[in-house]
Amino acid sequence: MTVPRDQSHEKQHKHLVSKVTHLYKEYYKVKWAGARQDVLGFYSPTWMTPLERALLWFTDWKPSMLYRVLHSLKSTAGTDGDDDGKKLKEMRWRTGVEEGRVEREMERQQVAMADRRMVELARGGPGGGGCVEGALDQVLVGLERVMKSADCVRLKALKGVLEVLSPLQCVDFMAALLMVQLRVRCWGKMDSVRSSSGCDGEGVGVARVDVI
């Protein structure tokens, strides 16, 4: 897809950004539906390379990464003034606070694994298989809740950044975000095969956006 950089094509810029954000929302709908069947699969996705899995933050990208990407684009996709800069700074702080809440919730889930009842079950205490299954179900429900909370922080941060940027800046930003994710996958594939010939892109779905 080719998108002109001229400001007169603002309608096209808005349409493209709207289309991409819609795909993000649809992805999370499908993800949440799948998590009800197998939430652990999203914490250790087999379709990702080891490098990609190592960089996951509760099943996906870390929200504060958005501000790093935006900072790297400040020469072409920076803010229009001090007010926008203040908004982004405030959003970054708020995103950090919300990330902390998700991390503390995961800590509670991890600590719950060591409570008295779980330890007794692990040692083969009374209760039998039914109690073990019940305890495991509670753990999985907790992990699903953490994943959804993290996804909400991701979507909220993305929405906030896009509301501050102009339509053309949004196109630049979304293209850069996509390229970061694709590049990490490329590096992960290269590392997996220990090849110096580069990444051939096999198995990578590439959505190309040319801004001219």
TrEMBL record:
GO terms for biological process: DNA-templated transcription. This is DOG1 domain-containing protein. Residues 1-194 form the DOG1 domain. It comes from Stephania yunnanensis. It comes from the Eukaryota. One of its GO terms (molecular function) is sequence-specific DNA binding. Pfam families: DOG1 (PF14144).
